[in-house]
Amino acid sequence: MTNRNKKNEFGLCDGVRVTSNGYEITTSRSNGSGVERVYNLPMVDEEKWIKEWENEGLHRALDGDKKQKFYLLVEFPYPSGAGLHVGHARSWSAMDAYARKKRMEGYNVLYPMGWDAFGLPAENYALKMGVHPSQVVPENIATFKKQCQALGLSFDWSREIDTTNPQYYKWTQWIFIQLFKKGLAYQAEVSVNWCPACKTNLADEEVLANGTHERCGSPTQRRPQKQWLLKITAYADKLLEGLETVDYSEDVKMQQVNWIGRKEWIDITYPVVGTNEKIVVSTTRPDTNFGATFVVVAPGHPILQTVKDRKVLEYAQKAENKSELERISQGKKKTGVFTGLYAVNQLNGQKLPIWVADFVLMTVGTGAVVGVPGHDKRDFEFAKAFDLPIVKVVDGDKMINSGFLDGLEIQTAISKMMDYLERKGWGKRIIRYNLHDWVFSRQHYWGEPIPIVHCPKCGPVAVPEDQLPVELPYLKKYEPSGTGESPLAKAADWVKAACPECGGPARRETDTMPNWAGSNWYFIRYLDNKNERELASKEKMKHWLPVDMYQGGAEHITLHLLYSRFIYRFLHEIGVVPTAEPYMKRRTHGIVLGADGRKMSKSFGNVINPDEIVRKYGADTLRMYEMFMGPFGQMVAWSDTAVEGVYRFLRL
Ligand SMILES: [Zn+2]
Ligand SMILES: [Zn+2]
């Protein structure tokens, strides 16, 4: 039997040592050499050893230890009712092997786990089950934890966190207040993405390129509403520069660079013939301007105020009443009306007819575009539909029919044209970003209350920090209303508050934070998960940060990964965290598909339950199989026969 109190040179209990083959355990059943090779196969009592590890504290990370630290982070899960996915098991087993290797190499390894349990999925699940989220979340967490332990993952459970714990979200709210104080959290009436199925607003990042909600797949709409926003755009350049200082895989970097979308534009002015009016058009491709043959303005463009033609105004009116999605949907027949006005292309003195068409939106750019039908599909379709001239100005990658640009390559032509337009006073360079401010309020129950009080005299006022957390009140009926009002508005007693500034009667903010709020900073809380005075102590942050290796899903690159870099950068600027970037290294894992090559889903009947594999073959079989499935970064389909093969191999 092993001796619990005595540790050998590997830091393991006496009688257990690590070899290149696995663990060797000296037991009374040992063979002649006194050593028996044991794998965690079903004949071994896995549960016993898991308890033993936990009791021994084998996987605890030591604060302030002299050994070199290594902070290894995996994305903490939303604990769904479905339990652990074999995809979780794959990613965490791989990093578990890495953690164990680092420990054996003499590092003081921090490999923690916690639960991202606020948000829509938990709320929708609870609604479906007809129970309260505060009841299902702890149950789901318990299941997840048991499953992790059954896999023998060497997480340091003493650091476990749960984003729905008031002692945790107290600090999520505290961060919001710091942002508010610096003017980086603000309210504005904005056109927001709305999911009619989930009855909630969504951030741009949550809407897929085809206009559907990334969670539920329903088509989204846009509608105006007063919202809280976080000014992530103020950090656009810093988030770009920061990428130069970290080791992220190239695809991760490129996705963030493209999402931030820093581009040099030029606003070009076109005088309108016979008036004092001008039209400004913004473009990144002024090199094609010799090929411009018409201008199209949005139905709400101010230039239309100079137009008297009833037909034009009626068209514009009708177009404005259509939804944006309807107006810009592809493949739709192009419509438009000539306004009777002309703009002058000052480059060559050519008169460009000004049209109005529904596919141009006032909310995009300046609400006017210059038609270059030789080099733009949409402009080409428009020119074809209305018999407008089409001029080619690029051949291969060289300019033609373009005066002083002829023979130049596109990139050179762009900057030469920008220089020329600026020199002439016809255009002005401007940097624009694809990134928008982050819509940060949700009209849902299951989230962190936004710690703001609205006073009729003082406006929005932050809840004093010594009154945090603002706890989420228990609401029996918590369904989203669908009117845009948060369910918390129904908690009349909770809503009533005294203004922290003037003491007068005021109302609490009833919107809650999105499910990304708790994950913005969770990796900081692992360092000091019971601290009541700070997010984490300065000393512990200095010891452990930044994260040395962060492993997670490709679907989070422009969501959680970008958001948390922004928040961390902000915390660095206000002197809370020790470094500018949170994660030194980022790698992505591929998804585990069903045996049929499709995404695992109940409706396809192809979901693999890791518990069953563990019961039948043992945790080591599952883990080893998943490590040999294929390249870690790629999608890979499940195979039952390969599991069998690994099992037989381990039994040899
Ligand atoms: Zn939805
Ligand atoms: Zn007041």
TrEMBL record:
Report domain Leucyl-tRNA synthetase editing positions: 258-416
Reactions it catalyzes: tRNA(Leu) + L-leucine + ATP = L-leucyl-tRNA(Leu) + AMP + diphosphate
Q: Which SUPFAM superfamilies match?
A: Nucleotidylyl transferase, ValRS/IleRS/LeuRS editing domain
Q: Which CDD domains match?
A: LeuRS_core (cd00812)
Give every Methionyl/Leucyl tRNA synthetase domain span.
75-222
* Listed EC numbers: 6.1.1.4
Keywords of the record, alphabetical order, are: Aminoacyl-tRNA synthetase, ATP-binding, Ligase, Nucleotide-binding, Protein biosynthesis
A single cellular component GO annotation: cytosol
Q: Cite the GO molecular-function annotations of the record.
A: aminoacyl-tRNA deacylase activity; ATP binding; leucine-tRNA ligase activity
Provide the top EC class. ligase
Is the Protein biosynthesis keyword given for this protein?
Answer: yes
State the InterPro entries in the record. aa-tRNA-synth_I_CS, aa-tRNA-synth_Ia, Leu-tRNA-ligase, Leu_tRNA-synth_edit, Methionyl/Leucyl_tRNA_Synth, Rossmann-like_a/b/a_fold, Val/Leu/Ile-tRNA-synth_edit
Domain Aminoacyl-tRNA synthetase class Ia, residue spans: 434-633
Name any Gene Ontology BP term. leucyl-tRNA aminoacylation
Which segments of the protein form a coiled coil according to its record?
none
Keyword Transcription listed? The answer is no
> Where does the source fall among the domains of life?
Bacteria
Q: Which family does it belong to?
A: Belongs to the class-I aminoacyl-tRNA synthetase family.
- Protein's name according to its UniProt entry: Leucine--tRNA ligase
Origin organism lineage: Bacteria, Candidatus Amesiibacteriota
